[in-house]
Amino acid sequence: MAGKGTVLVTGGSGYIGGWCVIGLLKEGYAVRTTVRDLAKEPAVRAALGKAADTTNLSFHAADLMSDAGWDAATEGCDYVLHVASPLGVTDPKDPDVLIRPAREGARRAVSAAIKAGVKRVVQTSSVAATSPIEGASDFLADETVWTDPNAQGVSVYAQSKTLAERAAWELIGEAGGRTTLATVNPTLVLGPVLSGDFSDSVQVVERLLTGRMPGMPRMGFNVVDVRDVADLHIRAMTAPEAAGQRLIAASGFAWMAEMADMLKAELGPAAAKVPTRKVPDLMVRLASLFDTDLRFVVPRLGRRYDFTSKKAQELLGWRPRPVRETVMDCARSLIEAGAV
Ligand code: NAP
């Protein structure tokens, strides 16, 4: 048995969950992970096994939408990293498709953790839960900002993450026991993928490499590396000073055109399809009338919506790697996985 204790990571089949499992195994923890369907175990174990010895990894079945399995998965654990939650780039017709698994899943995972008496839960939230109302001006937000889930124009995904995070803080506050909570709120997560089955966030690089994006809108994101996000979860799990803290995981802001330039400069022929053309705002606005995927792009055109991770850096000594390294490692891993 691993000597440092036992950690449950929900959603080890996912991008961030997978890298959290790898980080914990490397640090000597015994790790359990939940998947909806245990038939996924061989594929997930094989993918994680590329980066860590998975001897001390076990699998439990649990769905965010059902009570079954959560107590058994959590009993005897020292810590819980609650990572599982559906991602949504576009708004589903029925908001509950995202909101229910996020909020009810958070309640199930955190309640089971409290019942099991774990020392700390680290919940993966998002900067979608720390955003001022998007408007005419740029912003630089920190952890003091809470997204208003009822404000006009807030995406269903942002509502789901805000409501799930609130649910977790409420449950921990009401329990008032030994279990403490910290949240990690990442920006756009990129970096190496472990297989061709990757998170929606990676589409930003995948679309550039495959030329699926014929040109670049004037849009940018703060980017953070998946390995650094996992590292922050693990620091937040044990550091006494992280108890009760929201921690933004952010590295640097990059415009799509800057990411395209990085790929072109470093990948040679593998970047042949990366677009060089910039798409005028007016064209994006017109296209969004027909393509609902573009509707979330329009309010962001030319805006620098940015986030600071000063708190995680000062409190926990966390150091995110530069965006360029993250984008390039993401691209190279997609090429290696045969995904582009
Ligand atoms: P991902 O690769 O799509 O992983 C999502 C994980 O959630 C998978 O393990 C998935 O399990 C699990 N899941 C989804 N619905 C579930 C359900 N009903 N019951 C049980 N498990 C369920 O996404 P990711 O990028 O790693 O995201 C993980 C977390 O990070 C999410 O909470 C997300 O909101 C947050 N986050 C992500 C980003 C980003 O840019 N990627 C940024 C900020 C925050 P299956 O394998 O069974 O589908």
List strands and helices in order, with pairings.
Blueprint: E1 6-10, H1 15-26, E2 30-35, H2 41-49, E3 57-61, H3 70-74, E4 79-82, H4 96-116, E5 120-124, E6 139-141, H5 156-175, E7 180-186, E8 188-190, H6 203-210, E9 220-225, H7 226-238, E10 246-249, E11 252-255, H8 256-267, H9 281-288, E12 305-307, H10 310-316, H11 323-336
Parallel strand pairs: 1-2, 1-4, 2-3, 4-5, 5-7, 6-12, 7-10, 8-9
Antiparallel strand pairs: 9-11
The structure holds NADP nicotinamide-adenine-dinucleotide phosphate.
Structure summary:
It is built from 11 helices and 12 strands.
Major β-sheet profile: 7 strands, parallel
- Work out the helicity level: 25-40%
Q: What structural category arises from helix and sheet content?
A: alpha/beta
**Which architecture does the CATH hierarchy give at level 2?**
3-Layer(aba) Sandwich
Mean of the pLDDT scores?
95
N-to-C order of helices and strands = EHEHEHEHEEHEEHEHEEHHEHH
β-strand number? 12
Outline the low-pLDDT stretches.
Answer: none
CATH topology call = Rossmann fold
Number of domains: 1
Strand order of the largest sheet: 3-2-1-4-5-7-10
Ligands in the model, by name, code or SMILES, are: NADP nicotinamide-adenine-dinucleotide phosphate
CATH class: Alpha Beta
**What is the CA–CA distance across the termini?**
39 Å
Structure overview:
The chain is an alpha/beta fold. The protein has a single domain (6-336), classed as NAD(P)-binding Rossmann-like Domain (Rossmann fold), CATH 3.40.50. Helices cover 38% and strands 16% of the residues. The protein has eleven helices and twelve strands. The strands form three sheets. Strands 3-2-1-4-5-7-10 form a seven-stranded parallel beta sheet, sandwiched between helices. A three-stranded mixed beta sheet has the order 8-9-11. Helix 2 links the parallel strand 2 (30-35) and strand 3 (57-61). Helix 1 (15-26) crosses helix 7 (226-238) and helix 4 (96-116) runs parallel beside helix 5 (156-175). The longest helix is centred in the N-terminal third of the chain and has 21 residues, at 96-116. The model has no long low-confidence stretch (mean pLDDT 95). The site of NADP nicotinamide-adenine-dinucleotide phosphate has 25 residues, from helix 1 and strand 8.
